[in-house]
Amino acid sequence: MLSPASSPTRRRGAAIRGLGMAVPATVLANHQLEELVATSDEWIVTRTGIRERRIARDGETTSALAAKAARDAIADAQLEPDEIDMILCATCTGDYLWPATACIVQDAIGSRRAAAFDISAACAGFCYGVEVAAALIESGKANNIVLIGADTLTRHVDWSDRSTCVLFGDGAAAVVLRPSEPAQGVLGSSIGADGSHHRSLFIPAGGTQSRLTPALIAARYDKLVMRGGEVFKFAVRIMGEACLNALADASLSADDVDLFIPHQANIRIINAAATRMGLPPEKVFCNLERYGNTSAASVPIALFEAAAMGRIKDGDIIVLVGFGAGLTWGANVIRWERTPTSDEAVL
Ligand code: UT7
Q1: Active site (catalytic) residues
Q2: pTM (2 decimals)?
């Protein structure tokens, strides 16, 4: 884990100035899953909180969803694509093993000047990206960064495994981060990993460890495998810990939080983490009933919808937190100021 590093001397901050979101049109409701596996709408709603999710159709790639979200975020920030310095795409379901999906997005949106790379930290990827983007902006290495969370995990779901196929959905969302006054934007972060649990949630074949063969594909080794109970216990513990570490990095406490925007994996995990932090339900944002777990897209989709619904106002302290395969985790504390209080060009 990176140690908390409050920096009272920092000369500029990094704030979110644009937001975009893209989800596939195809909806898969719980009752449709009842036709595939031995499950019920009642079990899924009670045990997870999910009612429906979006499914990417053939041709609806991770990069296509990511590019739409990125374009909208750039327009929302009132920038042109060629003003973007860097594109970071948090994803674990890129279009190819390589090159990076961020490069495909760069081409699609015409951000010719932008450096582009992916962040592979699964469902914590967006929170990792906020830490990386903020550090680059604060240091003066970059000015306009597009950070995307995008995944099409349903491509890797085993539709005969009821313990996983009910959980995941597809989507993307993006933000534009720009220089701000030091007291605005990203105030603190905490990211970490415990690689000793890398097999708690993984895809067994398709990488250099196990090449895909017809026999392995037939045995569904190209589909995700999860020890759900293990991940559940880890998530409840780490969400609270990561948020408190990020708040300490920002010299704040849980009492200062106006809105908690957690990874949308399971309503029971979210409620347990919020209780541990002493947050009342009205300070917790949830939209997993409509999207399920969209992996790296989950936190930014929730952020996009929270902002669109007027749940965040200027000056609010929001906390983002994600956890996922790796196992990884990340949390960010942000003072929300959509409108710059000074001329960003001089920062
Ligand atoms: O981004 C990170 C991704 N991962 C996660 O966040 C996952 C974290 N884990 C979880 O959310 C939960 O562990 C699950 C939702 C995956 C499972 O919930 P659970 O309450 O831990 O259920 P369980 O695994 O203990 O299973 C309880 C029962 C079992 O039946 P028996 O053995 O008691 O007869 C399962 O076979 O529920 C059964 N079950 C189901 N029944 C109906 C498991 N999945 C289903 C299902 N429909 N879809």
Answers
A1: 123, 263, 293
A2: 0.95
